[in-house]
Amino acid sequence: GEALKVNQELNCVTDFIHGCEDQLQKLKKQKAKGLLYGIPISIKDHINCKGHISSAGMVKFLGQVKEEDSVIVQVLKHQGGIPFVKTNIPQTMINYDCSNPIFGQTLNPLNPQKSPGGSSGGEGALIAGGGSILGIGSDVAGSIRLPSSFCGLCGLKPTGNRLRYIPTSVLFFHPPWRLQRMLGPMARDVDSLALCMKALLCQEMFQLDPTVPPIPFNEQVRLRGTPM
């Protein structure tokens, strides 16, 4: 309900992920509770969710409904998280704003006259506006860090290959520069980022994608105040 209200004001959601209530009921019956049990999680538009499109703001991808969840969505669900919305991005995601011809312009909740940043701008706007408490964005050259900064949030671009980076519909986007494309969490505080990383760096992730180094999250390193 809150996400709907925020979306009406900021235009930050591209789709509502069906089956959320069914997933929650299924989770309640399971004995083992994951680290993200019952937490609604917003997902950047280009991350594949079964039964939904990953448009990247481009008309050519509107008819391509995905047949399976991406690895990161599978792991979030395994840990009890509930992906519930997909969020807006700039067309092709190569922009520090957040606008495309399909879903239009996303606004900054702190000042609707301003941009929320990009390319994970829908995530930034939704979380800062109070419609989500945890989201998954992606970052090549600032796409998590910029909207986090513009919207007053915390965000993390993990070390390259630390998490599974999903293959997407956006096959044309292969940056010529040597920067790692990474998925990462966005939230209102650092503790939420740490919890999300701890949940994602689990055996399920390592089994689903053997290219991810099987190194769990190191809580002691974080508590020492050195980089995660």
TrEMBL record:
An MF annotation (GO) of this entry: fatty acid amide hydrolase activity
Keyword Membrane assigned: no
GO biological process assignments: fatty acid catabolic process
Entry keywords, A to Z: Hydrolase
Gene3D superfamilies cross-referenced by the UniProt entry: Amidase signature (AS) domain (3.90.1300.10)
PROSITE patterns (alphabetical): AMIDASES
Pfam family, one: Amidase
Domain Amidase: 5-214
Family of this protein: Belongs to the amidase family.
PANTHER family to which the protein is assigned, alphabetical: FATTY ACID AMIDE HYDROLASE, FATTY ACID AMIDE HYDROLASE-RELATED
Descriptive protein name: VDHAP protein
Lineage, broadest ranks: Eukaryota, Metazoa, Chordata, Craniata, Vertebrata
Gene assigned in the entry: Vdhap
